Amino acid sequence: MNHLRHLRYLDEVARCGSIRQAAERLHVAASAVNRRLLDIEEELGTPIFERLPRGMRLTAAGELFLQYVRERGAALDQVRSAIEDLKGLRRGRIRLIASQATAPAFLPAALASFRRRHPLVDFEVQIGDRRQAIAALRSYESDLALTFGLDADPDIEALAIFEQRLMLLMHRDHPLARPGGAVRLRQCVDYPIVLANPDVGGRQLLDRFLARSSLRLSPVIESNSFEFLRGCLLHDQAITFQIALGAVSDGGQLVARDIEDRSFPKGQLALAHLRERSMPVIATALAEHLRERLGAQPPGDPQHDPADI
After folding, report:
1. CATH 3.60.10.10 matches 166-264
2. Three-state DSSP class for residue 36
3. What's the fold here for domain 2-63?
4. Extents of the domains making up the chain
5. What's the mean pLDDT when you consider all of the chain?
6. Cβ atoms of 138 and 66 closer than 8 Å
């Protein structure tokens, strides 16, 4: 299957934007990668890359061909997985994209427990928002997505839905961190608020609630990094919001508190894949494992906005 390996050269150059970097990742000579690209271009009768001073960029024809390469690679992965399953083995690589909230605690523990059952499996994990998740599924860069506030999309199918409430996160010495106590949102206005960017699902859930309320919360810091926001909680009695799954304690330094408001909406964490795609057997097994650990609810209406629940 040398021709498949050579097609992987193209995929890696597209990811890296550089023949040299792709060759380093593939552990082959840069001249060999360039030679295979030229062979492919000659066979197709058209350039697939623009060779620019700062690197390689796909042409329109190259983007079409790369999609074909990734679709073919995904199909081959599915066949290999099925063959291994017939042999009684569960091996292969699973590619997953997940929300930041899953990264500190839930996802590492879930993958570790899965590997204890299937030690021949490895993972490629990307952390991204819901738009990146949809793009990764469409481009065959990920087998599965675990993302909060998944937008309705005809190409994407939710395998399972997990209800998530938004919680307050603060330092353990914060005045509002009394044990077992829920917090009213109005109590938060006296403290610095640090929030995720407006395009993040949990932030949108909060903004929609505030739009229907007389309460105003003005963030002193906005960021696309949950890790950075958690660091901000160590200073100036700052407060942030996080879905329950991601509201972990950082070794006991942070505490999560419920929001005391019955009208405050809940959102949805979705486990999804590309509709009509046959997933590798081992990826299907991981999906079931994640479903079990999270306690799934049946997927709802795909046209329903999860932030309006």
Report:
1. no
2. helix
3. Arc Repressor Mutant, subunit A (1.10.10)
4. 2-63, 90-163+268-308, 166-264
5. 86
6. no
End-to-end CA distance of the chain: 50
Judge whether 246 and 168 are in contact, CB under 8 Å: no
Query: How many H-runs (helices) and E-runs (strands) does the chain carry?
Result: 9, 12
Asked if 267 and 148 touch (Cβ cutoff 8 Å), the reply is yes
Q: Tell me the residue length of the chain.
A: 309
Cα separation values, 114 from 88, 89, 106, 242, 297, Å: 17, 14, 12, 26, 21
3-class SS of residue 196: strand
CATH code, 90-163+268-308: 3.40.190.10
Residue 306 — pLDDT band, cuts 50, 70, 90?
Answer: very low
> Quick one: tokens of 101?
């909230």
**What amino acid is encoded at 279 in this protein?**
M
What is the rounded average pLDDT of the residues 291-296? Answer: 83
Report the amino acid identity of residue 90.
R
